[in-house]
Amino acid sequence: MAISKIQAESMNLADTYSFTGTVTGAGDEAKILSFGSYNSGYGSGARLATTSTSWANLEINGTNQAVFGQITKNSDDSLNYNKTSNSSHLIISINFPSYNNNGGSGHGIRCRFESTQGSGAYDVLDVTTDGPANGWGMHGYGGATSAMNNFTWNTYDNSSYRNTIKTSTGNMKFYFDVRVWSSSDTIYFNDYDNSYPKYCTIQVYEVAA
Questions:
Q1: Does a structural domain hold residue 21?
Q2: What is the pLDDT of residue 22?
Q3: Torsion angle, alpha carbons of 109, 128, 167, 25, to 10
Q4: Is there a contact between 138 and 110 (Cβ–Cβ < 8 Å)?
Q5: CATH code of the domain in which 95 resides
Q6: Nearest CA to 37 among 113, 90, 78, 93?
Q7: What's the domain count of the chain?
C-alpha cells in the first residue's frame, strides 16, 4: 500500500480522529501499565522509635494518609497493589525520613512481599536477606544524623519469585521491615514527634514484562 505523508500543520489537533488497525513501532519495552502512590501521613501511627536490632514493621498508618491509584490498604502498615497484567513487574519506591540520635552505627530496610497470592507468607523481595543496605548501610558512623532514605525495588530482580509475580494479577501485598544495627543507637523511623511531624511516600509502577 502506498504511504501518504501528512504535513503536521494540516492537522487540527482539536478534531476527533478514529483509527483502525494496529499502530506498531513504539514497542512494549518498559511500558507503564498502571500506577499507585501512598502517603503515610504523620503522627503516632506513622512513628517508630527503636533500639532493636531485630527487623520490625515500618509504621505507615498516620494522620491524613493518602491513597491514590492502584494502591489500597491491606492493614495498618501494609499495602495492596492491584496488578492488572499477567506479564508485568512492579517497581516499588519508598522515601522516608529518619533520625539517628547517636550515630554509632546505621540502619537498614527491606521489602516483604506476598509472592504467592493468598498464601499469607511474605518473602523478602530483596536479592539479599538483609536488604540493599544490610542492617547498617543507611546513615551512621558520623554522629547524630537526620536523613531522607530512598530505595527502589523491582519484582524482576529476585529470580526465586520472578515468574510467580510476573504471571499473577490482582492484589499484591507488601510491607517494609526496618532495623537498627546497634542498640546503642535510637533510630526514629518516619515521623519524629508531634513538634516535628514527618511522613513517607511510596510509589508503585506496573511495567510490561
A1: no
A2: 44
A3: 90
A4: no
A5: 2.60.120
A6: 93
A7: 1
Q: What is the pLDDT of residues 2-25, one digit of tens each?
A: 555 555 555 565 565 554 544 444
Query: Would residue 138 count as lying in a domain?
Result: yes
Question: Any residues with CB less than 8 A from the CB of 44 and at least 6 apart, and which?
Answer: 62, 191
Q: Give the residue from 96, 93, 200 showing the smallest Cα distance to 155.
A: 93
Q: Please return the burial class of 30, using the count of CB atoms within 10 Å of its CB with bins 0-12, 13-18 and 19+.
A: exposed
Query: At residue 140, does pLDDT exceed 90?
Result: no
pTM attached to this predicted model = 0.86
Q: Can you read off the three cell numbers belonging to residue 7? A: 504535513
The answer to whether residue 44 sits within a structural domain is yes
Round to whole Å and give the CA distance between 129 and 55: 11
- At residue 103's C-alpha, the angle toward residues 201 and 182, to 5°, is 90
Q: What is the pLDDT of residues 42-80, one digit of tens each?
A: 999 999 999 999 999 999 999 999 999 999 999 999 999
Q: Is 98 left (phi over 0), alpha (psi -120 to 50) or beta?
A: beta
- Give the separation between CA 173 and CA 43, rounded to whole angstroms: 24
In a domain, 63, yes or no: yes
Buried b (16+ CB within 10 A) or exposed e, 147-173: eebebebbbbebeebbeebbebeebbb
**Domain span at 184:** 26-208
CB 174 within 8 A of CB 111: yes
